Amino acid sequence: xxxxxxxxxxxxxxxxxxxxxxxxxxxxxxxxxxxxxxxxxxxxxxxxxxxxxxxxxxxxxxxxxxxxxxxxxxxxxxxxxxxxxxxxxxxxxxxxxxxxxxxxxxxxxxxxxxxxxxxxxxxxxxxxxxxxxxxxxxxxxxxxxxxxxxxxxxxxxxxxxxxxxxxxxxxxxxxxxxxxxxxxxxxxxxxxxxxxxxxxxxxxxxxxxxxxxxxxxxxxxxxx
Length: 224
Description:
Layout: H1 11-32, H2 38-57, E1 72-74, E2 79-89, E3 95-104, E4 111-113, E5 118-126, H3 138-141, E6 144-150, E7 156-163, E8 170-171, E9 179-180, E10 185-189, E11 193-199, E12 204-205, E13 212-213, E14 219-222
Antiparallel strand pairs: 1-14, 2-3, 2-13, 3-11, 4-10, 5-6, 5-9, 6-7, 7-11, 8-10, 12-14
Helix pairs in contact: 1-2
């Protein structure tokens, strides 16, 4: 289903809670300290910042155009490339794969998208820890989702959503057999996290560590 709204539905509860907490804080502060001071102004500014950041976190970048290119794997997430290495993938492939990891801060768009057209051939949720998302162990020890996509040529790419130290909820409503359409929503991770992409060894990676990724737009790799 294509996205046409500007805020993700997962944000409704979080935004309402933030508004309630901010309103209650302001009422209590003014009840006990009615005389307005510089500290009141700082509090109001901080409360406004909390509301803005909460709303911003759940934003949907509807203005973005999906990069469409044959054999391309686009970035499934916003963020910074934190790893680009050959590693052993032990859950599904059980062989060596090229792993590209994207670290998302709380300031990034946290909606994840399908990196190419295909079919969901594997999906599994794993409960776990909440280590800092940029640590290598977080890929397997943290709470995470593993999704494998296969295109019409039989090529498979594994996408792993990893909850970080701040994140406490991975949102993903997929089933094996679902259609994957490049650029459309795969799911999201709330409040800071990471996405790992496992590619075939012969894939031509187009990014390097430290590069800024833009979901839907940045070409991550080209498949052979």
